[in-house]
Amino acid sequence: MTPGGAPTSGPGTSATDVRDPGDRAVAPAAGSVAVGDELPPLTVAVTRDRLVRYAGASGDFNPIHWNDRVASAVGLPGVIAHGMLTMALAGRLVTDWVGGPGGVVELGVTFTRPVVVPNDDAGATVELTGVVGAVDEQAGTARIDVTARFQGQTVLGKARATVRLG
Q: What is the number of alpha carbons within 13 Å of residue 144 lying toward its C-beta?
């Protein structure tokens, strides 16, 4: 883990990266993927620092993502992560597995509960898992069903991605 809370490569932080000799990411081959196959899990610490960086990148400076007083005033239990940041983590799980963002045909989620981010160095731990839910060998695609959990509760519903297989 970096000082800012960004995950580093290693156990529990990043999916296995398949590389070809030119060091380019390679999508799994259509014939090698089956329904029920699990993606390597991804665990990410979402810190206040990460929220500030995401706000800068996205332009979403809503104070519920950085100000405890405002978050409490609108009925939230504390500062919450941007929903789109949580969705991006689901996208990262999938892109790590499929070999890069070019392999993702579609990604959709429903936001079911917020990720509350404490004002400490540890942040909020989001755990993501994925499983192959369907394979269309004729189209060369697979559906990935993603689960994102925070404090044991699902934070993304109907999280699914369609990916192009190699």
A: 33
Identify the helix (H) or strand (E) that includes residue 96.
Answer: helix 83-98
Cβ-Cβ contacts under 8 Å for 129 (sequence gap 6 or more) = 38, 39, 41, 42, 93, 146, 147
- In tens, the pLDDT along 21-61 reads 444 467 898 889 999 999 999 999 999 999 999 999 999 99
**Exposure pattern of 68-78 as b/e (b: 16+ CB <10 Å)?**
eeebeeeeeee
For the full predicted model, state whether its pTM sits above 0.85.
Answer: no
What DSSP letter does each residue of 115-165 carry, written as one string? -B--SSSS-EEEEEEEEEEEEETTTTEEEEEEEEEETTEE-EEEEEEEEE-
In the chain, the amino acid numbered 5 is G
Contact 162, 140 (CB under 8 A): no
pLDDT tens per residue across span 57-91: 999 999 999 999 999 999 999 999 999 999 999 99
> Can you tell me the distance from the alpha carbon of 103 to that of 151, in angstroms, rounded to the nearest whole number?
30
Q: Would you tell me how many other CB atoms lie within 10 Å of the CB of residue 32?
A: 9
